[in-house]
Amino acid sequence: MTETVWYASYGSNMHLSRLRCYLVGGTPDGGAITLPGCRHGAEPLRSVPLTLPGLQYFATESLTWTGGRAFYDPDASGETAARAHLVTIDQFCDIAAQEMYRTPGTDLDLREAITHGRVTLGPGRYETLVCTGTFEGNPVLTITAPWRYTDLPGNPPSAAYIRHLAAGLTESHAWTVEEIAGYIATRPGAELGWTAATIAALLRQATRMDAETIAPSRTTSMSP
């Protein structure tokens, strides 16, 4: 076992400000659940863009965002854009616990996942650990559900969730709005509520609103 692993995030945790809620605790922008954070809330040692073999899809109902959650099917054909964060083993275990709605603070035995590529710790969402290989000498681990993407109905993600996905893809892969919209709209489940055009419009509107929020106000200088 190494002291560090790559946590390969393919959902909202690609966005660093969202990941910090898992690391130090807090409520993400647009979310409904406050997270307790990790035992050690340090920033990732590094964060790099990765592409995982397999398919991202949206299903079930998120308690944090409403709408569909992002999952990863490693057995499906296709590629999934991800952002890998180099974290300590206890940080990864605490992130996984929070994803499972469990209390962080207990170390998980990651050896089976790393040795055999997968371990299921429970029947529900985000209770399966998948190791997709190694990168620069450290295991690449991600968190998903035990089922295939064809095993349950799709459910489109909410606008708030899409904005975090888009921010993470921009930070890590430097994709354009059109590339992000085309990618998300073609993930199974997303097409039930979104098109590439409606996602692009959502992201452009969010960009305009952010620009208006941070724009300096005009002041008039008056002589005494």
Give a description of the structure.
- The chain is α+β, with helices and mostly antiparallel strands.
- Helices cover 31% and strands 23% of the residues.
- The protein contains six helices and eight strands; from the N terminus they run βαββββααβββααα.
- The chain has helices at 16-24, 89-99, 111-116, 159-173, 177-185, 196-214, and strands spanning 4-9, 46-53, 55-59, 69-73, 79-88, 118-120, 128-135, 138-144.
- The strands form two sheets. Strands 2-5-1-8-7-6 form a six-stranded mixed sheet. Strands 3-4 form a two-stranded antiparallel sheet.
- Helix 4 packs across helix 5, helix 4 (159-173) crosses helix 6 (196-214) and helix 5 crosses helix 6.
- The longest helix has 19 residues, at 196-214.
Keywords:
globular, two-stranded antiparallel sheet, 6 helices, alpha+beta, 224 residues, disordered C terminus, 6-stranded mixed sheet, 8 strands
Biggest sheet, spatial arrangement of strands: 2-5-1-8-7-6
Radius of gyration: 18 Å
Secondary structure class reads alpha+beta
DSSP E strands, number: 8
* Quaternary class: single chain
How many distinct helices?
Answer: 6
Residue-averaged pLDDT: 92
Q: Sketch the major β-sheet.
A: 6 strands, mixed
Q: What is the strand content?
A: 15-25%
Indicate the percent of residues in helices: 25-40%
> What's the overall geometry?
globular
Query: How many angstroms does the end-to-end distance come to?
Result: 70 Å
Which segments are poorly predicted (pLDDT under 50) over 5 or more consecutive residues?
A: 214-224
- How are helices and strands ordered from N to C? EHEEEEHHEEEHHH
